[in-house]
Design a protein that fits this description.
The protein is an alpha/beta fold. It has two domains: 2-154 and 299-356, Quinone Oxidoreductase, Chain A, domain 1 (Alpha-Beta Complex); 168-295, NAD(P)-binding Rossmann-like Domain (Rossmann fold). The protein is 25% helix and 26% strand. The chain has helices at residues 42-49, 103-106, 147-150, 154-166, 184-195, 207-214, 231-237, 255-261, 283-287, 301-314, 329-337, and strands spanning 2-7, 16-21, 31-39, 64-65, 70-77, 90-93, 96-97, 117-118, 130-133, 138-140, 175-178, 199-204, 219-224, 243-248, 262-270, 292-295, 320-325, 344-348. Strands 3, 5, 6, 9, 10, 17 and 18 form a seven-stranded mixed β-sheet that branches. The two termini are 24 Å apart. The model has no long low-confidence stretch (mean pLDDT 93).
């Protein structure tokens, strides 16, 4: 048996349980990982709530093990595993699972694979003590990064990298606006955009959040998005030009202001709709100004490798709002659900001396 965060029914955070589940046997080609920490994402909330609708994957079978991203230590390498990993190596667990054979997978664009699935959403997730997984989903943790920090990287930073660089084609000197900038992906986008030489602006609600985001390196200014019409403030501070790229994960409540903040030819990158997925939109505001709306969810393996290399090279680290034991998973979900965080919430899984490796 192994301990895990288990979902037996859909509902509010109180439905989550930490308990024992049967340990699934691995294949000879797989690697056994002792999971030490797991980052939380909005995806976890949607899974727990049983969200359905357009663009949402079919409901999963229950019981279900939660968690899309994590980090840990290799405990065993299967006799047929094609990998250089060894027992004791520290690894990140990539969230996307694909066939690895189709044309998209061969190009490293694994999230476009017809068989693509996400750990913690379509498949049992990583919030458990031990996990057998294909080594193609594992990447070594940079030497200067802790396992707790590493657990906050795979989903969050890969998504931000995909939006800005792979799909967004961000160029040095462009203006970037990160909307709803307190979440993990948003903070990652701020860090990546600043490192790439962009002029970074952000929006959020609440003085405490604004102050913390404004203190991040490279942030030019933070606007209050509590009331609609904040695009006028953005146009004022950019001298009427607007911004070239918008990172948008909120959806309906901010959609119109975001579009009106774009410069002619600007790109709005979408990775979520936490506030609702049916916005009010004027088609003329898009085509008359050559604006683009581009979907860019969790990227592929190449994006993951590239962003981890960047983090290592630049010594960037995730901004951690809270680190909590797995037994406090209910409170961890409440923090995200109430948007009380700035950065990432990470849950730790007691592995004795492994977490210190």
């Amino acid at each position: 048996m192994t301990r895990a965060v288990v979902l037996n029914e859909y509902g509010d955070p109180s439905v989550l349980r930490v308990g024992d589940i049967p340990e699934v046997s691995g294949l000879p080609s797989q690697v056994l990982v002792g999971v030490c920490a797991s980052g939380l994402n909005r995806l976890d909330l949607f899974v727990r709530q049983g969200l359905t609708g357009p663009g949402v994957r079919s409901p999963r079978e229950l019981p279900h093990v939660m968690g899309a991203e994590g980090a840990g230590v290799v405990l065993e390498v299967g006799p047929q595993a094609e990998t250089d990993l060894q027992v004791g190596d520290r690894v990140m667990i990539f969230s996307g699972v694909s066939c690895r054979r189709c044309r998209y997978c061969r190009r490293g664009e694994t999230s476009r694979c017809a068989q693509y699935a996400i750990l913690g959403e379509d498949l049992w997730g990583v919030q458990r003590e031990r996990l057998w997984i294909d080594p193609t989903n594992l990447l070594s943790v940079p030497a200067r990064m802790s396992l707790v920090e590493a657990a906050a990287v795979p989903t969050t930073y890969t998504t931000a990298w995909t939006m800005l660089l792979t799909a967004g084609h961000l160029r040095v000197g462009e203006k970037v606006l990160v909307v709803g900038a307190s979440g993990g992906v948003s903070v990652a986008a701020i860090q990546i955009a600043a490192e790439a030489g962009a002029e970074v602006w952000a929006t959020t609600r609440g003085t405490a959040k604004r102050d913390r985001i404004a203190a991040l390196p490279g942030v030019r200014g933070v606007l209050d998005s509590s009331e609609r019409g904040w695009h006028e403030d953005l146009l004022d501070v950019t001298e009427g030009t607007g911004v070239d790229v918008i990172v948008e994960s909120v959806g309906a409540p901010t959609w119109r202001d975001s579009i009106q903040s774009l410069s002619p030819g600007g790109r709005m990158m979408l990775c979520g709709a936490t506030g609702g997925d049916e916005p009010n939109i004027s088609i003329r505001e898009i085509y008359q100004s050559h604006r683009q709306i581009i979907g860019a969810p969790l990227g592929g393996w190449n994006d993951f490798v590239d962003v981890v290399a960047m983090l290592d090279r630049c010594a960037l680290r995730p901004l951690l709002h809270a680190v909590m034991p797995m037994e406090q998973i209910v409170e961890a979900h409440r923090i995200l659900e109430e948007s009380a965080h700035v950065g990432k919430v990470v849950v730790t899984i007691d592995q004795g001396d492994l977490a210190a490796v």
